[in-house]
């Protein structure tokens, strides 16, 4: 299932209101799907972590073969390059009319908030 829709509100409705499903074109193992389903249950009392917390996640078949006692000592197969997050914000003030630079009127945030570029609010 694709959550994308014609506008932000419809997309949010799809994310929150539609049942979780996996696209057939994505190769996600049944064990991985089971773990993801268990983590994303809307009712917190029915989530995989409700009774035993992270212990239940660690015991899930998806993580079979992981030695959790040694996991902090294992060298990861890939360490991504660091990101300079300052490129995503500035200290310019939002426009008083809209709460956002450029006159967008769909979000009326606090005019004292920092502006976050490349980020959409619902």
Features:
122 residues, alpha+beta, two-stranded antiparallel ribbon, 7% strand, extended
Major pleated sheet: 2 strands, antiparallel
| SSE string, helices as H and strands as E | HHHEE
Order of strands in the sheet with the most strands?
Answer: 1-2
Query: Which term fits the overall shape?
Result: extended
SSE diagram, text form:
Blueprint: H1 8-17, H2 30-39, H3 54-58, E1 89-93, E2 114-116
Could you characterize the architecture of this molecule?
With 122 residues, this protein is of the alpha+beta class. 20% of the residues lie in helices and 7% in strands. It has 3 helices and 2 strands, in the order αααββ. Strands 1-2 form a two-stranded antiparallel sheet. The longest helix is centred in the first third of the chain and has 10 residues, at 8-17. The chain is extended. The two termini are 20 Å apart. Residues 96-108 have low confidence and may be disordered. GO terms for molecular function: ATP binding; protein serine/threonine kinase activity. This is non-specific serine/threonine protein kinase. It comes from Zingiber officinale (Ginger).
């Amino acid at each position: 299932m694709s959550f994308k829709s014609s506008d932000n509100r419809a997309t949010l409705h799809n994310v929150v209101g539609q049942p979780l499903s996996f696209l057939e074109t994505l190769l996600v193992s049944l064990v991985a799907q089971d773990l993801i389903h268990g983590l994303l249950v809307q009712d917190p009392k029915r989530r995989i972590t409700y009774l035993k917390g992270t212990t239940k996640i660690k015991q899930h078949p998806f993580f079979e073969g992981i030695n959790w006692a040694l996991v902090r000592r294992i060298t990861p197969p890939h360490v991504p390059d660091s990101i300079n997050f300052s490129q995503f914000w500035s200290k310019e003030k939002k426009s008083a009319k809209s709460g956002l630079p450029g006159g967008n009127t769909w979000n009326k945030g606090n005019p004292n908030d920092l502006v976050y570029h490349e980020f959409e609010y619902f």
